[in-house]
Amino acid sequence: MNKLPSRKDITIAAISVLLTLLLNNLIITAGTTIYATNDGSVSTPTRTEEPMSQELPAAPARIGAEPRSAGISVGTYTSLAVTSSNLPVISYYDDTNGDLKLAVCNDAYCTSPAISTIDSTGNVGAYTSIALTSSNLPVISYYDATTTALKLAVCNDASCTSPTISTLDSTEDVGNYTSIAVTSNNLPVISYFDRTNGDLKLAVCNDTACTSPTISTLDSSGSYIGLYTSIAVTSSNLPVISYLDGDNASLRLAVCTDAACTSPTMLTLDSTVMGRVGWHTSIVLTSSDIPAISYYDYNNQNLKLAVCNNVACTSPAILTLDSSGIVGTANSIALTSSNVPVISYYDATNQNLKLYHAPVIVDEGKPNSFTKSTPTNNATIASTSATFTWDAISNATSYEYCVATATAACTTWTSTSTSTTATETGLVHNTTYYWQVRAINAAGMTYADSMSFGQFTVVLPPDAFNKTSPANNATNQPATVTLTWAASTRAASFEYCIATSTGACTTWTSTGTSTTATKTGLAHNTTYYWQVRAINPAGTTYADSVSFGQFSVVLPPAAFNKTTPANNAVNQPTTVTLTWAASTRATSYEYCIALTQAACTNWKSTGTKTTVAVSGLSKGKSYFWQVRAKNAGGTTISSGGYRTFTTQK
Fold first, then answer.
1. Tell me, what's the pLDDT at 363?
2. Which has more pLDDT, 644 or 360?
3. Neighbour tally for 144: CB within 10 Å
4. Taking 50 as the threshold, does the pLDDT of residue 187 lie above it?
5. Average confidence score pLDDT of the chain
6. What is the mean pLDDT of residues 73-87?
7. pLDDT tops 80 at residue 442
8. Given a cut of 80, is residue 58 above it in pLDDT?
9. In 205-249, which ranges are E strands?
10. In angstroms, rounded to a whole number, what is the distance separating the alpha carbons of residues 411 and 404?
11. Which numeric CATH code is attached to 7-357?
């Protein structure tokens, strides 16, 4: 199997995704080791792979003691932080002199950094890690190889001209793989490896100068526990530490439940069947304190990512990000403002610096709980299409919805990508549907409303229909009018309204399911307006697209009587005068006279006169006669039926 390069042979031991820069304003191809010479030039010696006698790195007998063929060597074990003014600050190890050094940049591109030696007492500065206080003052943890101790440099000004140097732990050989974080009250917290005992240890500072730190062993479950530590603190100032379990070659996580981490929760996040995962860990927390850890899979020589599903990381999602060659050592992780992991790492195959945007969003593991919005539960939809909406979830990468006529039938899920709305067409009238939405990310899926389905019923409003009679603008309608209209599909009932103006049509009368109605008592010589509407639970449909019908009422003449000659009169002259009473509303009269009723077919008008003289009658004959009153509303026959009289002989 290909062996990894030793840590000092990696160009930048802890490549930071925050910024890539060189102190002397030089841009060098990633994957090369840079040596500065005494005359100010640079050289790039041929890279040599250092065979490893064991899979886990051994402690160097003298870091930086190997002879260099060209000048001095600086810049291993780098660690970078950025001030609130976006100025980089870098701690690193001067391999030649065995010193801890600091570069404080004065501009974003670090064109003229202030370089200072922080500690030169013995061989010091390996495994350095830097953090900044709220006042942008550097705090640096590192290893003292001379005394095999963990040390801390607390800067008292931004340039760190007179740092406070203290030894935090000097019990045997401790201080490898340090990682530092600063709490919200500027107290340093350092994770590190106890090489003598093979334990993961933690130093919790109780004041900003860390004069009396609390030292504790977090994991002593084996003989080689706690390599490649990386630490972060939650919004509650609780440490969270990723590290390598060398005995089991697994990625582990220590989640502290108090500031001193007296009883941490220990988790194994990745321990593949073939083993050997968890090298070169780097941890980051979201604003919700959800961890994400990048690390190296030594067995497969891949870059991997563990995305936690919650603060306790009970069910992390494990992803292989890059498997193209020997990739993933010396990695460093950060999050974008959208909680997308960005990871820098070393490509040992091509000797390149690489950057990876992970295909996940880290937040609270699987998506947060959320609710469906519309249609509301048990709603009635008056359309064959329905638009569904639901809450947006910040840690969801996509959504899927399902609609069916039964919850058990909801098996086809349709993706909406990141949209929180969807439209379903082709719905059927008078049918109840059930629907659900689920939010998805790399850690899993969450169903809306705690998996409770929503339901709605499609009830379409009645179809369009028309009024039939009276025809629009009809005239001479009687005082009792019969209104009729066509049937409307899906109508549950009908209502009609009739009034003397459209604005006065406010009283609606139900006809049930009947498509006819009779209205009595209409006034003579009046125009009426009428409308019908079909109703069901989904809505109301007005006939003729809400257009009113209208008609005018003209009542027929009122009843009236014939007067002379009296019925059955005798000895009438051959010229007889017929008279009758006036009829209200009559505009004209007609009379008929004949020897029989059946022969009375020739009606003659008298205009508005209520009398007429009839001559030329035969003597000694019986005659029948009748009168009728007329107007535009109709004809009224005089009361009493036909009258008869006999002429004189």
1. 57
2. 644
3. 24
4. yes
5. 87
6. 91
7. no
8. no
9. 214-219, 225-233, 239-245
10. 8
11. 2.120.10.10
Specify the amino acid at residue 195.
R
Alpha-carbon distances, residue 325 vs 3, 33, 351, 486, 622 (angstroms): 12, 20, 11, 78, 132
pLDDT of residue 274: 59
> What is the Cα–Cα distance from 611 to 604, expressed in whole angstroms?
12
The predicted pLDDT at position 111 comes to 93
Three-class HEC string of 23-42: CCCCCCCCCCCCEECCCCCE
Q: How far is 305 from 530, CA to CA, in rounded Å?
A: 74
CATH number at 467-553: 2.60.40.10
Q: Is the pLDDT of residue 36 over 60?
A: no
* Token pair for 52: 């490893």
Report the 10 Å Cβ neighbour count for 394.
12
Q: Where are the domains of the chain?
A: 7-357, 378-456, 467-553, 562-647
Confidence of residue 336 (pLDDT cuts 50, 70, 90): confident
What pLDDT does 309 receive? Answer: 81
Residue pair 609/534 in contact (Cβ under 8 Å)? The answer is: no
Cross-strand partners of 631: 634
Quote the pTM value. 0.53
- Quote the CA–CA distance of 309 and 290 in Å, as a whole number: 7
Measure the CA–CA gap between 554 and 251, rounded to whole angstroms: 99
**Which residue is associated with the tokens 């609390």?**
214
Q: What is the mean pLDDT of residues 135-149?
A: 97
Homologous superfamily assigned to 378-456: Immunoglobulins (2.60.40.10)
DSSP state of 558: P
The CA distance from 177 to 528, in Å, is 96
Distance CA 363, CA 385 (A): 35
Class level of CATH domain 562-647:
mainly beta
Neighbours of 326 (CB within 10 A): 20
Q: Would 378-456 and 562-647 be classified into the same CATH topology?
A: yes
